[in-house]
Design goal:
It is a single chain. This protein has 113 residues and is mainly alpha-helical. The chain has a domain of 72 residues. The protein is built from three helices and no strands. It is elongated, with a radius of gyration of 23 Å. The termini are close together.
Length: 113
């Protein structure tokens, strides 16, 4: 797919925002670590239980892990989206201020292959 097609579909950020956003992760690392420990404990109990009652406790823990890891990931995406919106406002204000001064950089449209 070309850059033009991706831009037309709304997949790409506007060119003036390329490289302007903070890309650090917004995942809560403590919650992620605790949830991972829950998943590992569930796997260990399934293995040790060898099909008995303890195995079903392990399955329950592992299913809890799957639900929590999904929730943590979705929450991180929501936080990242809000942060991008705030940064987008700042970038557009900076561009507008630079346009008013007349020293805005010329932005060329990138053409796809």
């Amino acid at each position: 797919m070309s850059l033009k097609q991706l831009r037309d579909l709304g997949v790409l950020l506007p060119h003036e925002e390329w490289g302007a956003h903070d890309l650090r992760t917004t995942v809560n690392k403590r919650a992620l670590g605790a949830t991972t420990a829950l998943g590992v404990a569930g796997l260990a109990l399934m293995y040790v239980g060898n099909g008995g009652g303890v195995s079903f406790v392990g399955v329950g823990l592992f299913l809890g892990f799957m639900g929590l890891i999904t929730w943590i990931s979705l929450r991180a995406v929501e936080v990242q989206a809000v942060r991008f919106q705030e940064q987008r406002k700042e970038i557009r204000e900076d561009i507008a201020a630079a346009d008013d001064k007349g020293d805005a950089p010329e932005i060329e449209a990138a053409e796809g292959p």
